[in-house]
Amino acid sequence: MAIVAAMAVPHPPIILPEIGRGEEKKIAKTAAAYREVMRRAAELEPDTVVITSPHATMYSDYFHISPGKSARGDFSAFRCPEVEIEAEYDAAFSKALADACAEEDLPAGFLGEREPALDHGTMIPLYFLQPALKKPVKVVRIGLSGLSADVHYRLGRLIQDTAEKLGRRTVFIASGDLSHKLKEDGPYGFAKEGPVFDEAVTEDLGKADFLSLLTISPDLAEGAAECGLRSFWIMAGALDCQRVHAELLAHEGTFGVGYGVAYFTPEGEDDARDIGRQLIDAETQAIAKVREQEDAYVRLARESLETFARSHTMLPVPKDLPEDLQDRRAGCFVSIKKDGRLRGCIGTLAPGRRNLAEEIICNAVSAGMHDPRFPQVTPDELPKLVYDVDVLSEPKPIDSPKELDVKRYGVIVQNGERRGVLLPDLAGVDSVEQQIAIARRKGNIGAKEKVTLWRFEVTRHV
Predict the structure, then answer these.
(1) What is the largest CA-CA distance in the chain?
(2) Which residues contact 372 (CB under 8 A, 6 or more apart)?
(3) Exposure string (b/e) for 388-426, b if CB count within 10 Å is 16 or more?
(4) What is the SS3 assignment for 460?
């Protein structure tokens, strides 16, 4: 058993007495739990500690493994330069892990280092661990990514494999805070998703319910403004096929940010906990259910992009479509999501094609291939994509934001040739002010510039 223990811990700088200057006493339970899990880890006399941190180098499509022999950092960013942390890297472990990732075609390695100094998401766990150690321990530091839950889990599994291959007694530390929006007077304010997210994650951690952890709603996580979920996903993979004893030692939200401390002890192999396979099966079943429920509008959008991605040809308009698609002309938007996150969205405010069917076909291809925010969709991605089609009413000018309703109306914000558009009833958009602000940003229109407002309704096909 190469992974001898794992833990999920927060990284609030204020927990250090040198920074908190008395404020740390308000999260005394978190500090006590932190010391306890590090005491347990030190008792195991590990050879290597793997730390995943959301504040290490991070890319949307790549896991960065810190290169080199060692690194140091301090808390100058928190007005405490005198507190310094040094770490010797386990270079052999890091290289073996990078090689294993390359063999498995998992995007991870040493490329693109931005800041060699240790980040506070790495330093705070080491601040608590190092004084408790009976012998020096080497560190592997890994950043997170914007990739899906299953890819994070696979990385964790390769960390487990590497530890076993090298015979390293390894402790895995998943550094990450929970929601940053637990209190109105907190540094990031309050969002209704915050407490819901914290309750769900702490329950999952306390029960080692990793499948539930891996399938948390992306909208919930985004609304909660969390930073630790992906660390926890990798940790779950590092405990793949292991019977696990889990303990949630603390959860506090004193300062408006959730701090959770959980400890996991592997207790032997358990093939029933092949959570990675269960996740893939769950996702496959979910997609199959979505496909069964597609109406003609959504099916047309999907088949249009699938045809173009595989053959680089446009789908001919099918002959068996409903009359509304063949005879009506209207603007429409096609939105594509992958793993619950936007993968592309392109649309037209007014009809530009002979009928709505052609409008959907063209916009679906554009959403997958020409949205400048994303790379082109590849054929390998097609089975995981989910589509929405919004058919628009004719936009009407309005005199005031009071005539808007974020659930009912989309908005067009226009200043000269610049124009921003936002659809109605979007997750995380809860007020007219927020809706207009987002539309302004999309149209590159300043917050104080005069604008003309338009509203429209949509018929949403999902």
Answers:
(1) 77
(2) none
(3) bbbbbeebeebeeeeebebeebbbbbbbeeebbbbbbeb
(4) strand
pLDDT surpassing 90 at residue 428: no
Amino acid in position 421: V
Question: Domain span at residue 178?
Answer: 3-281
Say yes or no: 49 and 160 in one domain. yes
Token reading at 402: 């009071």
Pair 237, 90 in one domain: yes
DSSP string, 158-215: HHHHHHHHHT--EEEEEE----S-B-TTSTT-B-THHHHHHHHHHHHHHHT-HHHHHT
Do 220 and 122 share a structural domain? yes
Give SS3 for 258. coil
Task: Based on the fold, state whether residues 381 and 400 are members of the same structural domain.
Answer: no
Whole-structure pTM over 0.85, yes or no? yes
Q: Look up residue 61 and give its two tokens.
A: 């499509």
Give helix 120-129 / helix 28-43 axis angle, nearest 10°: 70
Confidence of residue 167 (pLDDT cuts 50, 70, 90): very high
Residue 129, sorted as left (phi over 0), alpha (psi -120 to 50) or beta, turns out to be alpha
Q: 276 and 373: one domain?
A: no
Same domain, 196 and 273: yes
Q: Which residue has the tokens 């030190």?
A: 42
Give me 173's structure tokens. 């530390």
In whole angstroms, give the CA distance from residue 88 to residue 96: 17
> How far is 288 from 433, CA to CA, in rounded Å?
38
> Which of 281, 306, 321 is where one domain is finished?
281
Are 50 and 68 contained in the same domain?
yes
> Could you give the C-alpha distances from 233 to 26, 343, 446, in angstroms and in order?
29, 21, 38
What is the Cα–Cα distance from 4 to 169, expressed in whole angstroms? 6
Helix, strand, coil percent values for the chain (each to nearest 5)? 40, 25, 35
Report d(CA 162, CA 230) in Å as an integer.
Answer: 20
What mean pLDDT comes out for the span 164-171? 98
Please state the domain count of the chain.
3
Residue 13 contacts residue 123 (beta carbons within 8 Å): no
Closest among 221, 200, 199 to 211, alpha carbons compared: 200
Question: pLDDT for 359-404, tens place per residue?
Answer: 999 999 999 999 999 999 999 999 999 999 999 999 999 999 999 9
**Residue 378, domain CATH:** 3.30.700.20
Asked if 245 and 361 sit in the same domain, the reply is no
What letter represents residue 65's amino acid? I
**Position 356 in a domain:** yes
